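Quick one, probably user error.
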């Protein structure tokens, strides 16, 4: 009898495979980074073939490290960096162009043309999304418009589109030899092409974008058997698919209306479960699909997406050489008592929620001769907390319910200084679970539910445990004063790009 469930977690900077037991505990994992390609300012690409190669390597590596056979796995789920766009040949599996990463802004002209013809929110009633370079639809259009012959080949059914979940599942289940060309509702809702009510591709938007229906994957539930794996996982059912942030919501067992989580990774993503109803945002948030389990009704969410959080720490390490390892940011920031009056707004390729300003660029404000690298490090960490507060304020306004605590996960939650500051600026407790790798766990849960490894979501709730809680300690007047300074710094980023 199978004892474990697996998850292929394909992220922005690395890929990992994790194996969990029935109690949701980690049994084994392997992880590898892949290349970040920056051909021009604002352009961000990945080699999709390299991503698949890394996926195969970490699957084999995790099985070997854990001493687990593929036959010991009940099912495997996939979770992924969401809007990153791949177009490839149906018969060969070869991409026609590098993957366009969610951070890529080359579609700004396409988006501006769409906005000029009906406003930034023209698709929001159907899709829940503003028109922005972030989403997949304009990225597909760019590839079809700029790769020789791609549009006619797509119309003839020779090319396939997928976000990274679709790319991985297709390859995992056989690729050109009968691979399943599918996505789930959570990923489809990030393309700017899916209708929130029908849970299918919207023909009007496809027509406006010029995206042929023939190249699109089938939209499926997040927890359902899609096919059998080949290769190192031969015979294991591929049965879960969730965008990384929705997978974290699932892994945090936030199954009730009003439950929220924040994932601290390359960016930050705060999600609130709104139940079986799509709640339109009036405050700059995204309305989307949280998940869908088999034949059960879909569960919707509000999301605040922040592009640059952990990536700012990497920038400090790689571009400025101010630290040698990402973890060093905490000790450097601890060398000073405060931020020295410095605020760092990392609008490297615009601002996401709640502003949606593609014309913004990064700013360090408040510099004086007093400031040293410790203050800069502190301002880098505080930028994550302040951006999260802006999203929480928007979420409270949209939902009409004030957040009472925040579940957190992702790599940055082991930074004690940041977590305490986050609790301080939110004025609510911040709670880290015992298994902080909730993205992978959520994908494994979705797959395991589909095959009966776990019977129902209440079984998953029983696995959740609290590792640590941070309670707010900052004086409210001080918080308000510093928040006003942050807001002032944000306005300095506007209108930089003409």
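Nope, works fine. Designed sequence:
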């Amino acid at each position: 009898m199978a004892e474990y469930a697996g998850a292929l977690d394909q992220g922005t900077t690395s890929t990992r495979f994790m194996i969990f037991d029935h109690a949701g505990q980690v049994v084994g994992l392997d992880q590898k980074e892949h290349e970040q390609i920056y051909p021009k300012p604002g352009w961000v690409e990945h080699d999709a073939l390299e991503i698949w190669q890394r996926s195969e390597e970490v699957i084999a590596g995790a099985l070997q490290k854990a001493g687990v056979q593929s036959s010991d796995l009940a099912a495997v789920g996939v979770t992924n960096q969401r809007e990153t766009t791949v177009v490839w040949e149906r018969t060969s599996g070869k991409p026609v162009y590098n993957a366009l990463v969610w951070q890529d802004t080359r579609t700004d002209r396409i988006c501006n043309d769409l906005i000029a013809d009906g406003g930034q929110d023209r698709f929001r009633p159907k899709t829940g999304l503003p028109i922005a370079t972030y989403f997949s639809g304009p990225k597909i259009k760019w590839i079809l418009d700029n790769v020789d012959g791609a549009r006619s080949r797509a119309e003839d059914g020779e090319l396939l589109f997928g976000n990274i979940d679709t790319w991985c599942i297709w390859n995992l289940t056989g690729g050109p030899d009968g691979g399943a060309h599918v996505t789930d509702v959570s990923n489809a809702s990030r393309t700017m092409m899916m209708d929130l009510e029908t849970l299918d591709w919207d023909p009007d938007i496809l027509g406006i974008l010029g995206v042929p229906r023939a190249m699109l994957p089938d939209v499926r539930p997040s927890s359902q058997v899609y096919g059998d794996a080949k290769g190192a996982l031969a015979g294991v059912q591929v049965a879960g698919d969730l965008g990384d942030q929705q997978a974290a919501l699932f892994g945090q067992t936030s199954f009730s209306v009003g439950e929220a989580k924040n994932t601290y990774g390359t960016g930050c993503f705060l999600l609130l479960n709104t139940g079986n109803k799509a709640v339109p945002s009036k405050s700059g948030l995204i309305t989307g699909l949280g998940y869908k389990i088999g034949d059960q009704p879909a569960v919707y969410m509000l999301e605040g997406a922040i592009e640059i959080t952990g990536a700012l720490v990497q920038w400090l390490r790689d571009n400025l050489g101010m630290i040698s390892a990402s973890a060093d940011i905490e000790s450097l920031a601890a060398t000073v008592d405060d931020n020295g009056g410095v605020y760092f707004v990392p609008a490297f390729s615009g601002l996401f929620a709640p502003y949606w300003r593609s014309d913004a660029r990064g700013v360090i404000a408040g510099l004086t001769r007093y400031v040293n690298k410790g203050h800069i490090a502190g301002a880098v960490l505080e930028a994550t907390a302040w951006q999260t507060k802006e999203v929480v304020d928007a979420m409270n306004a949209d939902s009409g319910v004030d957040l009472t605590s925040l579940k957190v996960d992702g790599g940055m939650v082991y930074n004690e200084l940041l977590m305490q500051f986050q609790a301080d600026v939110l004025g609510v407790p911040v709670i880290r679970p015992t298994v902080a790798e909730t993205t992978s766990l959520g994908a494994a849960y979705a797959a395991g539910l589909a095959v009966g490894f776990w019977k129902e979501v209440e079984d998953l709730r029983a696995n959740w445990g609290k590792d640590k809680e941070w309670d707010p300690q900052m004086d409210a007047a001080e918080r308000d004063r510093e928040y006003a300074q942050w807001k002032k710094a944000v306005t300095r980023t506007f209108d930089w790009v003409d």
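The two ends are 62 Å apart (CA to CA).
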